[in-house]
Design goal:
The chain is mostly helical. The protein has six helices and two strands; from the N terminus they run H-H-E-E-H-H-H-H. The protein has two domains: 73 residues, Multidrug-efflux Transporter Regulator, Chain: A, Domain 2 (Orthogonal Bundle); 51 residues. The longest helix has 38 residues.
Length: 125
């Protein structure tokens, strides 16, 4: 059992982040034990899940859906949400690769151009 400060420390987040998760309904607020609320390993596991899902690109709304799906054992729906996230990641990777290609060409043009304005600067005007 630990305080919200210790939970934040163990989870690698700030106390305000935990309070935000609580306001969003992602993290349960425990009943006070005396003057202090006591958090346990289940709370730590929940925060770890939220952080991992965020790294995977899920929004807080989607994370709430995943948590509800876990409670109801709706694996098929969770899989569909993951496949949707994969598609969004693939689309973003395509956009990033296109941006990289453009910037690579502009950097090359800038290096080999003796004219003003700079091709990089000019391309964004």
């Amino acid at each position: 059992m630990f305080t919200i400060g210790k939970l934040a420390e163990k989870a690698g987040v700030g106390v305000e982040t935990l309070r935000f998760y609580q306001r969003k309904g992602l993290l349960q607020v425990p009943e006070p034990s005396g003057k202090v609320r006591q958090y346990d390993e289940a709370h730590l596991n929940r925060v770890s899940f939220i952080k991992g899902a965020q790294v995977a690109g899920f929004s807080l709304g989607e994370i709430a859906q995943l948590l509800a799906m876990d409670a109801s054992q709706d694996h098929a729906e969770a899989r569909q949400l993951a496949l949707k996230r994969i598609k969004a990641i693939d689309e973003r990777l395509t956009q990033l690769q296109a941006a990289r290609t453009i910037l690579e060409k502009l950097a090359h043009d800038c290096e080999h151009s003796r004219h003003k304005p700079c091709p990089i600067i000019a391309s964004f005007c």
